[in-house]
Amino acid sequence: VQLQASGGGLVQTGKSLRLSCAASGRTDRILFMGWFRQGPGKEREIVGHIIWNVRSPAYRDFVKGRFTISRDDAKDTVYPRMDNLEPEDTAVYYCAAQLYGRSAYESWGQGTLVTVSS
Predict the structure, then answer these.
(1) 79-99 b/e with 16+ CB inside 10 Å = b?
(2) Cα distance from N-terminal residue to C-terminal residue, the chain
């Protein structure tokens, strides 16, 4: 499975941004599509995930109510939409796939930078 993330950029506090992650290859093997981020000087953390086949999302508490993850079945693409962005959301965002029969996220996109200015 190959992943291509895009959509990052510079936005002001309170604004919205939609990222995307296009999957290709054996997408039928995807169990979870996760979104991670790594802020300046911080460790990478998971933001949320979507169960691929049932399109059921889940979020970490610190983004709940502000982030929404959806999937376009026809395009095999996942779209995390981030609303009411805060400077603390500044990070490189990554998508990753966990496949059936695997216990970790092993396929990673290249990351896309989101910068939120105050």
Answers:
(1) bbebeebeeebbbbbbbbbbb
(2) 37
Contact 116, 13 (CB under 8 A): yes
**What's the confidence (pLDDT) of residue 42?**
97
* Average pLDDT, integer, range 18-37: 97
Contact 7, 110 (CB under 8 A): no
Residues 6+ apart with CB under 8 A from 84: 14, 16, 66
63-69-70 Cα angle (round to 5): 165
pLDDT digits (tens, 9 = 90+) for 36-92: 999 999 999 999 999 999 989 999 999 999 999 999 999 999 999 999 999 999 999
Q: How far is CA 69 from CA 9, 62, 109, in A?
A: 18, 15, 16
Q: What is the CA radius of gyration of the chain?
A: 13
